[in-house]
Every structure is written in C-alpha cells, then in structure tokens.
Amino acid sequence: MPKLRIAVVGGGIGGLAAALALTRKGHEVRVYEQAPELREAGVGMHLGPNGSRLLERWGLGERLRALGVRPAGMEVRDWSHGGTLVRQPMGEEWLAEFGAPYYTIHRADLHTMLAESLPSGTVRAGHRLERFTETGGGVRLEFADGSTAGADVLIGADGAHSVVRRTLAGPDTAVFSGQSAFRGVVARDQVPGLPGDTLLVWAGPDARMLVYPVRGGRFLTFVAVVPDPRWRLESWSAPGDLDELAARFDGWNTDVKSLVAAVRESRRWALYDREPLARWSAGAVTLLGDAAHPMLPHHGQGVSQAVEDAAVLAHCLDAPTGPDPSASVSAAAAASAPAAAAASAPAARRAIAAALDAYEGVRRPHTTRVQLGSRGGGSQRLRPDEDGTESTGTMSSLVEDVSWIQRHDAEAGLPPLPPP
C-alpha cells in the first residue's frame, strides 16, 4: 500500500500514539493540537498489560521501565481503622498471567515519551480545528487561525468533546454518573506511612479513595471519588476545594486523613461518559480514543484502549484494502495531470473507506464492552457491610472484571498483510 498523508486532530496521548503507530508504517503524519504548546496536564494513570505490550513492540519498553512503576500488589484497606483486608499480588505474577507489565505512570511522562518518539515537525501546536470537508482529493481541514491543511485521512483524537465526533455523529448527550472525583499528587515523604509500590483502595459508605505510586514511588497519585449530583463540571482543570476534600474524609482512618492533609493542590471533575456510537467512520474520517468511546475511569482503561485503537488503525491502513500505487496521486501530480487524478481518486477513496471500516469493525465491539462495563465495575463494587466494616468478598470479582481486558492482544488475530 502506498503511504498516506494522515492528519490527527488532538495531541493528547491517544493522538500521539496514533501518530507513532502510523509513522512506524511509513505514513506521513501531522498532529494538530489546539493548545499553544504540546504538553499534558493531569496526574498518574494506569497502563494495563494490554497497552504496555503494544508500546513495548513499538520500542518503548526501556523508557516505560524507567518512568513507570510496576506495583507489587493491590490492597483493599478498611476505611475506618485502616487495616489491610485483602492483598492481591501483582508485579511478576501479573506479568506471567497477562504476558506484559502493569504500570502506573504520570500522564506527563507517557505523553513526553510518545512526543519524543515522533519525527521532528510531526506536531503542529496552536491549531484548533473549526471544520473539515471531504473533497475529491481527500480531506480539507480549516483552523481557527485561518490556516488550512489537506490529508488523505483524518483521525479525530480530540477527546470527549470532539469536534470531529460532533461533525460525524451530531451532538450527543453526556451521561452523568452522579459522582465526581478529586485528584492530585502528593510527595510520598509527606506520607511516609504509605508504601511506594502498592495500589491502595479504601471504600467507605459514601466515598472511595484510591492511591498509587508514580515516578519511581517518589510521588503518590490520589483519586477520591465522591457522590455529588450537584457537581456537574466536566473539566480536567477545575480546582478542587481542599476544605471540602478534607470534610469528605473526616472520620476516616489516620492514613487517609494524613494523605488529605498533605494535599496542596487538587483538581475535580464530574464523571461522565457517552452512549456508544453506532458508527465511528465516514469516508476518509474516523475516530480514536475518547473521541470514539469516552468511558468512566473505573477500569483504568482510557489510555490503553486508545493505544489499542492506534495499533489496529495502523494495521488496517497498511492492509490490502488501502489504495494501490496506480490509485495514489499526489497533489503535485494532480495539478499536472487532472484527468489521471480524477480517474484514480474514487478508487483511492473507496480503499481508504474500506480500511477505516475494517478498523471500526475490529475495535468498536470491544471498546463498547469495555465502555459499558466501566459503568458498574472497578472499585465501585467495594462496599462496607451493614455493620460498617469492609466487605472482602469482591476482590476476586474486581480482578475478573479486568482480566479479560488486560489479557487482550489487539494485534492478535488481525488478518496478515500480503507480501509486497
């Protein structure tokens, strides 16, 4: 398949992962990011074996090992007295079980790693997409600053509020979970009683606190999930009120209260997802990551699913459904030979559309299952018993909830490419 000009809208982790996967196939990729500079906000995140196995294949294993933390285990602790109720070993045991490491890693570290793996000039910051149109020669992008760009393929990786998604599928309705989450990072030397190698979960009567290590265990990310039907701001950057955070966990065990007391800055976001889309693609345009399947965070799969999307998309655009050399006409050739361009363009467009349909056909059923399962899964299953003590009977179900996801190899079973 001849190599394509591919425009990726959105310079987050999903967009950069797509750019890296496609660049590795030899395509000419440009990433258009609306922010004036490329950088990732946020705190820690989970990278399951299903995501890490793909990044390792892309040559990023050594950097993942340097920047990420492989937790030795996961513990559920009692919200009131703080004792460990049950521990699930991870580390080498999960590596053997799932065939790739489980990492916790700071979002900015993974984002930087991906950005530095791309060829110089791939990312164009300060480009906010306003509209796009398909033409006989591909897709035309128009940006807020008046500039334009052309591409053979457009990938919308622009998040849950995606402009590309809205154009393809129309306006949608965000589904509110009734919960919001405080999140932030605390230096571990401020809470020396907490380990730097363990995922910790405390589930109380009306809130949950999750804590896990990043940056070699020198810092701990916390995510405090609280019910609140009034807080409906779906924003990653809205400040979280520290007095309210402290009030939510007043009366909890000493470790949780010490953690909350050490917080100097927090963000708060309301937890929304969307109903799964019936279609992701139209013509030469498709979606990826949160733009395609925004999901609640309870399975810790947002980033890993985007990486899986990127791997499958790159494969499908490299498959025989893509345009053949006789159907590929550059802009320069089209200008000098308009008749040839007109004759070949329909075949090229059909081939690209078929490749994107194949990508969607592989990914959409899988991500729909993950997306809907996130609504009732994860630590939401943990509830104190009626006497106020923590129930310990659900740890096995927590692991079962995500084991099929983490065992998944997105590249296994894909149709092999024909010899050149």
TrEMBL record:
Keywords: FAD, Flavoprotein, Monooxygenase, Oxidoreductase. This is Salicylate hydroxylase (Putative secreted protein). Signal peptide: none annotated. Its cofactor is FAD. Residues 366-420 are annotated as: Disordered. The keyword Transferase does not apply. GO terms for molecular function: FAD binding; monooxygenase activity. The keyword Repressor does not apply. Residues 5-319 form the FAD-binding domain. It holds the Pfam family FAD_binding_3.
